[in-house]
Amino acid sequence: MAVFATVQLQAYQSVFPNAATRAAALAPLVDNGALRALYGYPYDIADPTGWVAWRSMTSIGIIMAVWAVIITTGALRGEEDAGRGELALAAPQPRNRWFAAALTATTLETLTIGVVAMVSLAVVGVPQHLLAVSNSLELGLQLMLPALLFTAVAAVTSQLVNTVRAARLIAIGILVTAFIIRVPADTGNGVGWLRWVTPLGWIEELAPPATPSVPALALSLGATVLLVLAALPMLAARDVGLGILSARDSRPPRRLLLGTSWQAALRDEAPQLAIWALAVAFYMGLLGALIKTVFELMQRTPMLGRMFGERFAVDGFVAAAFSMTQLIVALLVVTLLVAARGEESTGRLELVLAMPCSRTGWLGGRILLAATVALAAATLAAVSIWVGAAITGERVRVNGLAAAAANTIPLIVITTGFTAAILALWPRAVAFTYGVVAAMYLWDALGTALKAPEWSLKISPFHAVPRVPLQQFTITPAAVLTLSGLALITLSLWAFRRRDLVTG
User: For the whole model, what pTM was predicted?
Assistant: First the structure.
């Protein structure tokens, strides 16, 4: 998070070095509805602090909220799902202490991330007179508050339902609803009051570099405290392993997608995959709508048009959009294979393998499912960009979008192979693959900005593949990544057949 924010600060200084002309140069961005929907209301983006708050912290805040939901539900409801919560509470300790320990851990992790981000921004920005120390504190606050608030939301949802998946889906649903309410508040006329209805609007109303809004700060912190207090009586009122909302003991059989283990996995992950699909379609559709802004910028700045040309600018924009798509599909692969680990850790896999289902068939089906779903997500991204551009009256080359989607295949294969190999060899470490993917993506962005040696940049698979359609597709890096991924997949299938199942 700190790297992303500081890179944005440096990029802002490079692109807009002249403070006197920034406002005029940024005017097309201020008035663009798609950008407002994506990043929020641009309060003062002519100031470096305002730019980072708008361009980085709005997105990072949502990512932090999702992270807090996953961590908190895992520490509360996930521990009960796995049976460890019952063991922990069998010791002489009150439930409230166990509950407080989980929330304290998430809070300390959030504060650590926030402090690192604040220090990084101050170290980069203060010597260059881009921002003051107080501005870095404001930006850090904008980063931490969504995580703290949705930690409390997840604490409540973990008491309401009896599975970690349901708790996460409800909490993410609340976050999505908050975002949907925020969009018209930022894009419409006369409906800015809607920002006070949504938690994401409260965070936006902090509006750095201005003095933080006291009502917005009070609402964010107050809601966090009230939600935690509301979760405590729910915790005391229910039995371990159960939720406040009663679950049905029986229901009519639903046999759809129960023919094979991979079909059952698809069925289990369908609600989560639907959220991924909606998020990809919405986000990439907005990016497609921004292509009109690229054309307007070229028209406003004839020199840019003569230097680059419209096709070069659009291809560069699509390549940048697919850089984010590459990260999305890689994380989607990891998510599906981590879910496979969940089936093993809870003991369900042992029951599956007791039936006529081989280990190779089970893991191979999960690998194929992860790769296929990721490729479908890349295709959906390409279609959404085209639709978003078409809605605004612009056209994007279909062959360029198709090539960009196909360019994700080597990344999908290498990510699938690496994650599957970790699952087969060190199953308890498979969740750390999220960190590896994030580190590789950030190194591509940060290393490129710092002009690191090319050999070091190519450590990242995200850098190894060309920026299609801006750059020509090259077969060598794609072949190396694909063959390496297939080799890792083969290794994972071999290793998984030879190890014991690991629960817990």
Answer: 0.79
